[in-house]
Amino acid sequence: MQDEPTPVELTQSVADFLRSDITPLISGHQAFKLRVAINILDLVTRQLTQEEGTDAKEVERLRALLGMDGSVTELNRALAERIAKGEADLATPGLSEHLWATTMDKLAVDQPNYASYKRELGRGG
Amino acid sequence: MIEPQLGRIVGSWYAGAIGVANSKRLSGGASQETWSFDIMQPHGLVGAILRRSPKGYGAAPTRAAGLAAEAKLMQLAFEAGIPSPRVLYVLRPEDDLGTGFIMQRVEGETIARKILRDNEFAAARPHLARQIGGILAGLHRLPQDKLPKLRSRSATQEIAEFERDYRSLNWPKPVFELALRWLRDHDPGPSAEETLVHGDFRNGNLIIGADGVRAVLDWELAHLGDPMEDLGWVCVNSWRFGEIDKPVGGFGSREELFAGYEAAGRKVDPARVKFWEVMGTLRWGIMCGGMMQRFREGPDHSMERAMIGRRASETEIDLLRLLAPRGS
After folding, report:
1. Which pTM value belongs to this model?
2. Could you report the predicted ipTM of this complex, rounded to two decimals?
């Protein structure tokens, strides 16, 4: 077991330092790049916080859909192949719900301010 | 710096020019550069833009039309009355500046979020969707016998090409697979008429002022194909920049776009437009994947590129909204 602070806490502390202490000192293209850097650290923080829980649920759904076991990557590959071969489509029970849940979990990490995501979140998904 | 070289040749193609000043690099990667500069003449300064590939970067990527074709298309558009910069000069080998061209600088804004938010454009915004319809109709009517040599692409070929691009990423994405199947099932076949297609006509590639669209830029993906492709691409959600209920670039409705197009004497096929919107959404998603791959393997190890890789999921939610909408 590793010591603390946790990776999430460490990453957040760097993002906070850049945001509050460095941003006021920088302008122009470097300021734009600094904003990108802070966005990356925020994304990493969200992923570290959420990934374990959402991956576990994704694997559970994929097992039920596919009737097989495997890692989250292996199961996604298997589902992609089935859709490509026409063995699974939107008429397959649970597929649409699974893709929506998985995609919402990705947006929560990648772009929680994306307008389509916020609209769909408002639907209670 | 590029200024001395430009200064040496400016007199040969701009009457009365005595030099150039204020050159600055605007954007672009290693293979393509955009520079802004001023032509000095006795009565004052004339704003100009240089687009060029430096020497050794002449070969265009397979999908690109090439800078010579871009110059030709912009000049044709200008002559046809489409908002476009006037092309002032096409570079020659003896200029020692690489390949490319120089055009008049059009003042205005290209940053999509500013155009959608700033007061300066408030009066223009409600008219833009319809105006864009009219511009696209004019563009699709450019005389084919005058066009430079361009690749021709049908929907069927595009689907196959995107599928190949996607598979080469080795990036299993069930939502992309679903979209590929939908596209194959809804392939409208060859278009009844093949026209010039701009290929990247969207909010972000237009210069806009308080009076509306002033110039159409970025012709590098121009090709021959189904004119409805341009109408679909301009509606892709990523180019609405948050204004998701205004499909045409965040400006207005499809109805306004279609009305502007038809008022200019051309027919809209809404089913084909929808097909190309789905195709365009997937296309941007696969391009995000390409950015990820180049970030990982290529020389451009930039944070911006890395973060564009993480934008693929925005196209997944938009594809689901198009193909598997929930409730209403």
Report:
1. 0.93
2. 0.96
